[in-house]
Amino acid sequence: xxxxxxxxxxxxxxxxxxxxxxxxxxxxxxxxxxxxxxxxxxxxxxxxxxxxxxxxxxxxxxxxxxxxxxxxxxxxxxxxxxxxxxxxxxxxxxxxxxxxxxxxxxxxxxxxxxxxxxxxxxxxxxxxxxxxxxxxxxxxxxxxxxxxxxxxxxxxxxxxxxxxxxxxxxxxxxxxxxxxxxxxxxxxxxxxxxxxxxxxxxxxxx
Length: 206
Ligand code: PRP
Ligand code: URA
Description:
By secondary structure, the chain is α/β, with parallel strands linked by helices.
């Protein structure tokens, strides 16, 4: 299922990221903040368990998270979303998937994968700002499933219908979270209006 997070704070921060004149520092900072805001919404169905605690005023029953959470950024651009989500879920473990798009075929090429233990018992959040053709997201979900993951959420900032369709067809069990659904892909597979090459803008490599 697709969840479009239409919060005014997310929209205004995304607008800053979209602007061509926004530099690396502000791009990264706004991505970090949006990731935190998205995490608040994405985690609203996480299970909790009751715990007996004592406040300065007496005993009461509180709640603590009753699940493991694993963040899996797709390198490189997904790395820019890790810190913001970890601020909300400091106990989250982090796995990594290295993928890049072949610039001619737009097919994803895997170059790295490493995961923490207990993937099968964890809620796995696959992170990437961009959902373009959907090839990278589909491949990343294939990889985390092969590593045992059963409860997976895909967290993107900007996506297009084409990418959403690819992921929903291949992985109907995975919820997709987007901050914005954009118009289209251009002839070289970039999202329009989008925000350009997310990896390059985060790391200042262009
Ligand atoms: C970008 C982006 C996604 C992918 C999306 O990564 O961060 O991973 O493209 O495109 P798709 O939906 O068509 O697969 P890129 O391949 O540019 O690698 P990078 O993050 O290392 O720059
Ligand atoms: N990857 C990006 O970084 N940007 C796009 O618009 C598409 C894929």
